[in-house]
Amino acid sequence: MMERNTFYAFVKRLWRNKLAATGLCIVMLLCAIAAGAPIIAPYNCNAIDVKSILLPPSFQHICGTDELGRDVFSRMVYGSRISLAVGFVAVGISTILGTLIGAIAGYFGKWIDSFLMRCVDTMLCIPDIFLILTVIAFVGENVFNIMVVIGFTSWMGVARLVRAEFLTLKEREFVLAARAAGAGDARIIFIHILPNALGPVFVSAVLGVASAVLVESALSFLGLGVQPPDPSWGNILMQGKDNIETAWWLSVFPGCAILLTVLGYNMLGEGLQDILQPRLKNTR
Amino acid sequence: MLLYCLKRFIGMIPVFFGVTLLSFVIIQLAPGKPTDRLTELNPRITPEARARLEQYYGLDKPIIVQYGRWLSRIVRFDFGVSFSSDARPVIDKIWDRSVPFFDRRLTITFLINTLSLFLILAVAIPIGVLAAYRPYSLTDRITSVAVFIGFAAPKFWVALLLMMVFSVQLGWLPISGIKSLNYAMLTEPGQFFDRIRHLVLPVFVSACGGIAGMSRYMRSSMREALSHDYITTARAKGLSETAVLYRHALRNALLPLVTLLGLSVPGFFAGSVIFETIFGIPGMGQLSYQAIMMRDYPVIMGLLCITALLTMIGNLLADICYAYIDPRIRVK
């Protein structure tokens, strides 16, 4: 595990990497917005105001108002909570599941490996959004289900990654040494090999948050995600589509928020990859 | 080569079983029984009739037998009848023989995705080559930023913005659908141009994410190819830069692209669900969205199986192409 000094060294390198530093700033900003939503939002995000329906951006409503007169900026601020929560929980599930499956497949090999990898191939054969939509339609659309379903349909990349790491790591001397010292399979997998494979897992988790945010917004946009009146960037965009001829602000601002979020996580992920796996840098 | 193809084909079989099993499990998850529509909604039904119906659909058999029967229907492309009011067989909805070839759902989706694939290759390969040839140059930096943004922008948002600018504000392109209302009255060239006008936005939207991904991939692949010794040799023997770049480096850099294309087939279908819904294009994606919203299980399952089958065929073709152009793969 990381010592205090190596952690400082890591933070230093992260700050020196422009890509990672910018990404981290964006991500921290979004976390701050989500955490301070009640203070930042100028209006109650669900307050209906019939006198100010579909107002263009102004000093009172900097991102305009929607078809029920609600302040779009306030809704976006609260929407950041949803996208943050969905991103982290979905990635938490998919990373744990993918790491476990990849570790088991890579460590034990033989028929277990072939079986688990065929499962991965099978899942990859089905278009992700289609599978997610289908399952959501069956289990019901609420934030909890969305997080779980996205998590359970996006573990395949991590599994392949961890498996590949395990295939090379399990041949190394320290594994042999651990086994000679009498360590069991579980101990070798979790205490000896896994910490050495965590770098790429961490990178793919950060990139995974970005794609989970994208999937959530697409689901909400299609009406199978976060349900109104709960605000989400995706469902504000859905209103934007309904009012495309009159209210451009409903389509533009939430999309920019999604773009910025995804950009932040992608930059952080790419930057981390440069820091954690410098040998890849020359070819990319 | 034939042995290799055969091996790949056999390798596909477990995945096919996996997909059908997964689809079957999802059907089982769905609330209610397929006979409910005939039994629960009919107040005059007798217990005997209900039992007869369940026997007819095989619901009284053990689950493994049900799976076997369902599978034997699937391989004959018999996905059952849609729950919607028209009650047509699922396969007829996807591949409707009563309408012209170019109006069938599968054709429309296939056409849009093929066109966007060509657009992706035509734009991404030159960008990738340019960026890799002069890494960290101004061109490389600009394209890198564009690629990052292209990656991060949600497809449906890009679609929305383009629709707002080109269809609503400027009025240059139609806002939705695959043909105009007066399509039947147009002349042949007019009909052709009408189709093209409707295809511009969907094709561009479905390509934009792919262009970002592919050009990035092309850049790294090209940089890798350019770092090899045979490039130094080619330069040392006095070949022109064009020959080095296109004949030696590009041809090798294109190899891994084939696999990537095979892997991106499900991504194309996933994209279709989104942009066909937004643009109101009557293709497979729109059908799947409608089926999901209506909880029309037979249609959903049929589409799930067909897209998975097409993906597997795409992967198989990619593998075979790869082995054909790169003999090293066949030996391994």
Number of domains of chain A: 1
Name of the CATH first level of the largest domain in chain B: Mainly Alpha
CATH topology of the largest domain in chain B: MetI-like fold
How many domains would you count in the coordinates of chain B?
A: 2
State which percent range the strand residues of chain B make up. under 5%
Q: What is the CA–CA distance across the termini of chain A?
A: 28 Å
Largest sheet of chain A: none
Largest sheet features of chain B: none
Query: What does the radius of gyration of chain B come to?
Result: 25 Å
Q: Mean of the pLDDT scores of chain A?
A: 85
CATH superfamily heading of the largest domain in chain B: MetI-like
Percent of residues in β-strands of chain A = under 5%
CATH architecture label of chain A: Orthogonal Bundle
Q: Helicity level of chain B, as a percent range?
A: over 70%
What low-confidence regions of chain B span 5 or more consecutive residues with pLDDT below 50? none
Count of discrete alpha- or pi-helical segments spanning 4 or more residues of chain A = 12
CATH topology of chain A: MetI-like fold
Q: What is the chains' assembly state?
A: heterodimer
Please tell me what the overall shape of chain B is.
globular
Explain this structure to me?
Chain A is mostly helical. Chain A has helices at residues 4-16, 18-35, 37-40, 72-108, 110-125, 128-139, 143-152, 156-169, 173-180, 185-221, 233-242, 248-276. Chain A has twelve helices and no strands. In chain A, α4 (72-108) runs antiparallel to α5 (110-125), α9 (173-180) crosses α10 (185-221) and α11 runs antiparallel to α12 (248-276). The two termini of chain A are 28 Å apart. In chain B, α8 (155-169) packs parallel to α13 (265-279). Chain B folds into two domains: 2-94, no CATH class; 101-325, MetI-like (MetI-like fold, Orthogonal Bundle), CATH 1.10.3720. Chain B starts with a helix and ends with a helix.
